Amino acid sequence: MKVLVGVKRVVDYNVKIRVNSDQTAVETANVKMSMNPFDEIAVEEGIRLKEAGIAEELIAVSVGPKQSQETIRTALAMGADRGILVETDIPTEPLAVAKCLKALIEKESPDLVILGKQAIDDDSNQTGQMLAALMGWSQGTFASKLELGDGRIKVTREIDGGLETVDLKMPTIVTTDLRLNEPRYASLPNIMKAKKKPIDVLTPEGLGVDVSPRLSVLKVVEPAKRQAGVMVENVAQLVDKLRNEAKVI
Amino acid sequence: MSILVIAEHDNVDLKPATLNTVTAAALLGDVDIFVAGSDCRSVAEAAAKIQGVGTVLIADSAELKNSLAENVAPVIVALAADYSHILAPATTSGKNIMPRVAAFLDVAQISEIVEVVDGNTFVRPIYAGNALATVQSSDTPKAITVRTTAFDAADKEGGAASIKETAGAADAGLSQFVGQDLTVSERPELTSAKIVISGGRGMQSGENFPMLEAVADKLGAAVGASRAAVDAGFVPNDYQVGQTGKVVAPDLYIAVGISGAIQHLAGMKDSKVIVAINKDEEAPIFQVADYGLAADLFDAIPALSAELDK
Ligand SMILES: Cc1cc2nc3c(=O)[nH]c(=O)nc-3n(C[C@H](O)[C@H](O)[C@H](O)COP(=O)(O)OP(=O)(O)OC[C@H]3O[C@@H](n4cnc5c(N)ncnc54)[C@H](O)[C@@H]3O)c2cc1C
Ligand SMILES: Nc1ncnc2c1ncn2[C@@H]1O[C@H](COP(=O)(O)O)[C@@H](O)[C@H]1O
Q1: What is the mean pLDDT of residues B56-78?
Q2: CA B237: distance to chain centroid?
Q3: pLDDT by residue (tens digit) across A141-187?
Q4: Degrees (nearest 5) of the Cα angle B235, B236, B239?
Q5: What pLDDT is recorded for position B168?
Q6: Closest Cα of chain B to A72: distance in Å?
Q7: Cα distances (Å, whole numbers) of residue A14 to A37, A239, B104, B127, B172
Q8: pLDDT at A228
Q9: Which ligand is nearest to the CA of B228?
């Protein structure tokens, strides 16, 4: 079985982001970039399927600028076999990424595609669902557990009320939630080995995909800052303030 | 053209998230509601009573019972030609279904809007709410999910919409519902509760959560948690408040043993009043708290419980 995972290069989750001075975007120059955390979970799940003898090949795909090769290298160092970069400097929207991934699926014929549930920069939570629609495939979003069967997969999903399990026809698209697994760190020898693993570089045009944005960003601003309030001495004072000052209890 | 709102429901009750979505939709035009489900007449009747709704469309068939995206998305797509905008609440169900609809229609989705500027222009949070982007779309229809905490609930009484049957669904043959393991609670639902009390890693174990629940019951509050508390297995996943969990904006949010990472703040910083109880005076949560108490929670929470009885 072949598994394809999406790995997006995003501003590291520990960075305190800043809006640029002309209020058009978030500053990304000279900012630490990393693999989207949900994609680390996707890569980890793919590796575990290989280790369990269920998957033979794991391919890591990124759509984005040249530097996204570093993100793919991270996936290769974790244990993916090869990478594909669909190189573009246009900021990618979920629909455009889904179309690129569809074109790659048609070339590579994976049985399972694992994406993150959400990219922590755009917070869209769309790409997997869109890809499933474009392929006419089933979708197992917000997954916290996968059980592979014969041509089917059982996916436990994190939903608002708790957990839900669905049984999906394969091939399918799964998107990862936080509890699916704990991603490993790449070991030094594996980082060295990853340097020799192949990365194909393609373009959206080469794949016949139009990635021009559908949304125009008119403005990006920082939200109003919350003022820090007061420290109270003890619980009695706290309850008094909540009752008589804030009047919320 | 009118605006279509996808109802959130469990085939019996209409969920409050629908009401907030109707308010966002009403800023764009005349609102119709779509109820896709099985034996869901009571939901359509409740939807018809919402103030300002024109028509309630109902698709009632067994294939729609469990809101499987593979079966629900095509019935929404079939209605799309009559609408300029299609809106769903940004619940796990809305997030699951709406992008599938958008891709079938070859339109972008605008996720989790917090403001309607005009019919083409919307504000949405990005980077865990640390920036707000104003985006414009020229797609028709527009597929949108709505952050429910950013819009008031529409009045659920006073309307008299007509109810119209639409075609049911075929089984897409792609997915089957196996089962659900839902958290059962007598407390208010987290995203619509007036008061929320959340516990973090500082709670140390799930066995200590009844301490918070005792306070919650005295306040009529819902109980939430940080990711760390969920990952550690103290409480189920549906308690998670934050960038990648639930977004809440109650009148009062009490954070107990939570440090205040940006991913947690993303889910609660729009609460009216924030209380933080943390033994570390330097914890970042105090920077957003209206009232901070630097104390050991194992003293403070029992004391709080006792004080509330006074
Ligand atoms: C992709 C991604 C998504 C994420 N999504 C979310 C999300 O949606 N929601 C979320 O919450 N987090 C999320 N996180 C995790 C987030 O970054 C933090 O790790 C998490 O919020 C920390 O939880 P915590 O505050 O409970 O734990 P900690 O940061 O460990 O803080 C525990 C706090 O408890 C205090 N404490 C300990 N003992 C006591 C005591 N006896 N009395 C009083 N205080 C005590 C400590 O002083 C400390 O401040 C996400 C992270 C990533 C990478
Ligand atoms: N540019 C990209 N390159 C590779 N994968 C992506 C890209 N954008 C989104 N994805 C995948 O889709 C998931 C959800 O992203 P989003 O829909 O943008 O929130 C991510 O976690 C990735 O797995």
Answers
A1: 97
A2: 14
A3: 999 999 999 999 999 999 999 999 999 999 999 999 999 999 999 99
A4: 85
A5: 82
A6: 22
A7: 11, 34, 36, 11, 42
A8: 86
A9: 1
pLDDT digits 0-9 by tens, B288-306: 999 999 999 999 999 999 9
Distance (Å, whole) CA B308 – CA B295: 18
Q: How many A from CA of A121 to the centre of ligand 2?
A: 10
Q: Is residue A235 part of a domain?
A: no
What type of residue is A140? G
C-alpha neighbours within 13 Å on the C-beta side of residue A75: 36
Task: Report CA(A115)–ligand 2 centroid distance (Å).
Answer: 7
Dist. CA A155–CA A175, nearest whole Å: 10
**Looking at chain B, which residue has its C-alpha nearest residue A19?**
B131
* Residue in A177, A198, A188, A141 with CA at minimum distance from that of residue A40: A177
Is there a contact between B302 and B170 (Cβ–Cβ < 8 Å)? Answer: no
Residues spanned by the domain of A146 = 2-224
Question: CATH no. for residue A39?
Answer: 3.40.50.620
ipTM over 0.90: yes
State if residue A87 touches ligand 2 by the CB under 6 angstroms criterion.
no
Pairwise CA distance, residues A137 & B172, whole Å:
9
Residue A72 burial (CB < 10 Å; 0-12/13-18/19+)? Answer: buried
CA distance B222 to chain A (A): 13
Residue B169 pLDDT > 90? no
pLDDT tens figures, B132-141: 999 999 999 9
Residue A122 lies in a domain: yes
Question: Would you say residue A179 lies in a domain?
Answer: yes
Domain tally, chain A? 1
Q: Is residue A34 part of a domain?
A: yes
Q: What percent of chain B has pLDDT over 90?
A: 98
Note if the pTM is more than 0.90. Answer: yes
